Amino acid sequence: MDTGEKITAQSKKGFWAWLKSLPEGIPLIGWLLGLFAAALIEYFLGDLISYYLGLPKVPALFGFLTVLKKPLLIPGTIAYLALIYGLPILVIGKSLRKPANRLASLLDRGPVTIAALVHLGLFYGAIHLWTDISDYRLLVLKLTMIAIMLTLSLNVINGYMGEFSCSHPGFMALGAYGASTITLLLFANDKLFGEPLLPAALGPFFFPLALIVGGIIAALGALVIAIPSFRTRGDYLAIISLAFLFIVKSLIENLEFIGGPRGMSSQPDYSSLPMVFIVMVLCIWIINNFVRSTMGKALCAVRDNELAAESMTVNTRKTKIIAFMFGAFWAGVAGGLFAHVLRYVNPGSFGIQKLAEVLAMLYFGGLNSVTGSIVGAVSISMLSEALRPLEIYKWIIIPLLLILVMLYRPTGLIAFTEFNPKELMKPKQ
């Protein structure tokens, strides 16, 4: 290698080393401040910047939908993403590194709840501005947050307990129809139930109770799966849980008082962004505490060796029932939100395709990991939406991606990793 080539190689190494060093020392709150600033810039200047870059409008989903329809817009879209997201987040995060670390140190000395609320407030402010630009963004974000809840709840059963359940869309359907029945019966003038029994103004305040009732109905339905799980495991339990899914779907199709195969529509618009966000945060917090508790350790013991766990005084039957009902409860809550986001629900929404989506999110992100479930749900949801212009080819690309992940990362991208919010919020200096 001559002198010129050595200098070139060293300069390349130096550039990459410099590039890798850019994010160093920035705490989470610094990144969130940068994200909030980027959302503000897009909110006020997005239309202007997109116009001068030759884009027809502000890219709805980070430009994927734009460039897949018109590849000639790729340079403008990349420039837009760099100007709106890349540079502001990095520059503001880097320039505010010291103040952000001081703020993170101050929050670290106080109650973890205060620190969490500050971080969540910044994050919510950013996504609120981001979704204000487009109703399409709002819908995608709501459905993604619901997918996070579904994936986390399934991880409790398929990941931490080690069973293979296919019944989650059935639990989701029970929650969706249960919550929809309550809101339509009590607060909406609907063709199925007629005049509302209570004033519509009370609906938003009672909506959380409707979600809880939907979750309880789903949890009671989980007993149908939990009890056979005492004697069956693996493929046999998967068949039983799949049969439960078909039973629930068939039952709903034949109950005319809840719409039968036509479904239920005209659900009140109670699933606002703040509502879905708060329920998702509660779901993550409660499930994370659950899997890290004594019950969570018992679940892992049952997964690793049920006989050994029983010999060590773990009540395996009680553990399985609690896990199935707990996971089903949150699937039911997610179903209630799903029904009120779309404001229409029918039995076809909870079939094999929904099962395949949730399983893909779970195994793509990683088993036994709250972080993995979040990453899997966000990745598959966003990828599925971003590839929508490819139509049928989308269902070739996503399965191929899953196959590659299963070949090279059989346990998923982020498996067997604890989610520790306090550690994430610590200063980086």
How is this fold's topology laid out?
Blueprint: H1 3-21, H2 28-52, H3 64-69, H4 74-95, H5 97-109, H6 112-132, H7 135-160, H8 168-187, H9 203-226, H10 234-253, E1 264-265, H11 273-292, H12 294-304, H13 306-311, H14 316-342, E2 344-345, H15 352-365, H16 370-386, H17 394-408, H18 421-424
Antiparallel strand pairs: 1-2
Helix pairs in contact: 2-4, 2-6, 7-11, 7-14, 7-15, 7-16, 8-9, 8-10, 8-14, 9-14, 11-12, 12-14, 15-16
What does this structure look like?
By secondary structure, the protein is mainly α. The chain folds into two domains: 24-132, no CATH class; 135-350, no CATH class. Helices cover 72% and strands 1% of the residues. The chain has 18 helices and two strands. The chain has helices spanning 3-21, 28-52, 64-69, 74-95, 97-109, 112-132, 135-160, 168-187, 203-226, 234-253, 273-292, 294-304, 306-311, 316-342, 352-365, 370-386, 394-408, 421-424; strands at 264-265, 344-345. The chain has a two-stranded antiparallel ribbon. Helix 2 packs antiparallel against helix 4, helix 2 (28-52) packs parallel to helix 6 and helix 9 crosses helix 14.
